[in-house]
Amino acid sequence: MKILITNEPKKMKEVFENWLINIEGKSQQTAYNYKNAINRINRHYLDNEGINVDLYEIKDPKELSFFIKLYETGKYSEFGNNGNGTNRAAIKSFHRFLCDSRVQIEKLIEIEESNEEKELIRGQNLSYEKDLKNSIIYQIQDLFPGYKIFGRDDEGIEYNIEGKRIDILLESADKTTLLVVELKSGLADYRVFGQISMYLGLLSEKFEGKILRGCIIAGEIDKGLKKASLANKNITLKSYNMKITLQEE
Question: Membrane spanning segments where (predicted)?
Answer without folding.
Answer: none
